[in-house]
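Quick check before the chapter quiz. The format below is the same one you will see on the exam, so make sure you can read both the input and the output lines.
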Amino acid sequence: MATGSEKWNRVSGSMQTMKMQKVAARRSYYYKPYVAYQYSLAGKTYHSNAISFPDPTFNTKKEADFFASYYREGGVNSVYYDPADHGRCCLKPGMSEPLNRELWYAGVAFFMSLVFAFSPGRLRR
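Here is the expected output.
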């Protein structure tokens, strides 16, 4: 769904709720946003809380506050919706930064495992 959302249509929506949750991790905290918004298409109103795919998390309060500044309660924001299913939507289309980073790390790990597996020292036995 993440990559397909890049081609979705855009409509204006109204932000009803924006809360930042502080979540305890092993030895630290991270911040997770919760939003609720609505938008209308063809006379029908839709409600959602999807931000992106996957939804973002933030390591610092400063990052969380910066994100929250774009999605103020009562504000108007762009909502991207699936033209085939108007109820599927998000605020930020495409893959979110954490998913891009995870895919990059997985690619590097895979590449390094290939280098190790086929290194000249390992091929001679």
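If your answer matched, good. The two ends are 46 Å apart (CA to CA).
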